[in-house]
Amino acid sequence: MDLELTGRVALVTAASKGLGRATATQLAAEGARVMISSRGADQLARTAAEIADATGVQVEHCPADVSDAADLDRLLRETRERLGGVDVLVNNAGGPPPGGFDALDDTQWQQAFELNLLSTVRLFRGVLPHMREQGWGRIVTVASSSIKQPIENLTLSNTFRVGLLGLAKSVALEVAGDGVLVNTIGPGRIATDRVASLDAGRAEKTGQSVEEVRAQSEKSIPLGRYGTAEEFGKVAAFLASGANTYVTGQNFLVDGGMVRAI
């Protein structure tokens, strides 16, 4: 299938590794010119070079903290100057720290709000004028399987990921007439550093080994294994592509059937 991305400009945040990197790689493989961003400058530069070498397309990089408004302004400006207006936004950010409700203070709530929700609002504002003007755009927001089913001990993530869902749905309705499609995608147990860290934390809390924790998780997944970042990236790339012409305002899970909710 031709995803009709050749020459399109794609911005992918939190893309130096994991889900963001896999999605950026897939977009580049389909011919998009890509700007990737994350906080770690050295890793980001290596990732950009590796994706460019693997795909043969232009891959730019710009370090930025998505929770910092000035950083986001600079990222958007650099993207426009180096590549042009953003046609495709894959909005991704690291997860907030784990913890139950009683363990969280106002500072942690505010930081999670700025990282996972306000950053998305700012990125939407930054890319929508160009998309609406040209009558074409794709926005994919990376959330979590918690948009369907809360995850134990991830109160901050559970709260703000659902907020992302409401935001994306609302914006999708407003911009559909302008040719801009907006969707949300939630990973389940994908083999990333974030999930490895959560497994390690649960192992420490329960006295189990990391291998035992992972085995328990895999038993809850009908496909019987953790997913790969590449599998996630393929789904995200389709939603972000020209091949997607009639899907907007929706939310999807890439979870191997883990979440049973309809």
What's a concise summary of this model?
The chain is of the alpha/beta class. The chain has helices at residues 18-29, 41-55, 69-82, 106-134, 155-175, 193-206, 210-219, 229-239; strands at residues 9-12, 33-36, 59-61, 88-91, 137-142, 180-187, 251-254.
The total count of strands amounts to 7
- Strands in their spatial order, largest beta sheet: 3-2-1-4-5-6-7
Question: The biggest beta sheet, please?
Answer: 7 strands, parallel
Radius of gyration: 18 Å
Question: What is the N-to-C order of secondary-structure elements (H for helix, E for strand)?
Answer: EHEHEHEHEHEHHHE
Helix-strand category? alpha/beta
Oligomer: single chain
What overall geometry do the principal axes of the alpha carbons give? globular
Query: What is the typical, i.e. mean, pLDDT?
Result: 96
Beta percentage is 5-15%
Helix content: 40-55%
- From the N-terminal CA to the C-terminal CA, the straight-line distance is 29 Å
Low-confidence stretches: none
Count every helix, treating DSSP H or I runs of 4 or more residues as helices: 8
